Amino acid sequence: MEGKTYDQLVEEFTPMIHHMMKRMTIYKDKQEFFQIGLISIWETMSTFDEEKGKYSNHLYRHMQGRFLDELKRRTREAERSAYPSEEFWEVMESPILYREEEDYIKGLCYELNEGETKWVMFTFIEQLTVKEIAKKEQVSPSAVKWWRKGAKEKLKRTLGL
Predict the structure, then answer these.
(1) CA 105 to CA 111: how far, in whole Å?
(2) In this predicted model, which residue has the larger pLDDT, 131 or 96?
């Protein structure tokens, strides 16, 4: 390790980066994990103490820790950003809502524009289909579908889903 430049270390330990990615079954975002491996080489250049062992062992443990940290971070992020399935929306569109539910739904519409609010109210309270809403509002079914799309996106954000 002594006297070697960063470029020399990268050339020498690139196979270790690939080995670590293969060992940890990293198949998505390989370039990002490769960059983490390169950063590990850079970081360990200044933290390595020759009296404590071989540089390759130090680098291996450091890189493994960085990869695990990144995998944990991604897992947490994926858990926080889970979206409801289509079944959720089908249940939400099912009939017979009670007064409290109706008030709750009306309260959710504060961020929606007029068309999106109409879709929510007609769908969840009056139980109308896209075609029925289009006929009632004298617009095309595709316009109602745009209202639906916008409403779903905004409601997902509002509800934190």
Answers:
(1) 12
(2) 131
Sorted by where each starts, the structural domains of the chain and their CATH numbers stand as 6-80 (1.10.1740), 86-159 (1.10.10)
pTM (global) more than 0.70: no
Does residue 36 contact residue 13 with C-beta atoms inside 8 Å? no
Q: Which amino acid is at 84?
A: P
10 Å Cβ neighbour count for 76?
10
Between the CA of residue 141 and those of 24, 103, 127, what are the distances in Å?
49, 27, 16
DSSP string, 54-83: -HHHHHHHHHHHHHHHHHHHHHHHHHHT--
| In the predicted structure, residue 103 carries a pLDDT above the cut 70 | yes
Which of 121, 90, 126, 92 is closest to 107 using CA atoms? 121
Contacts with 47 (C-beta within 8 Å, 6 or more apart), sequence order: 58, 62
Q: Rounded to 5 degrees, what are φ and ψ at 53?
A: 140, -165
Q: What is the pLDDT of residues 59-79, one digit of tens each?
A: 999 999 999 999 999 888 877
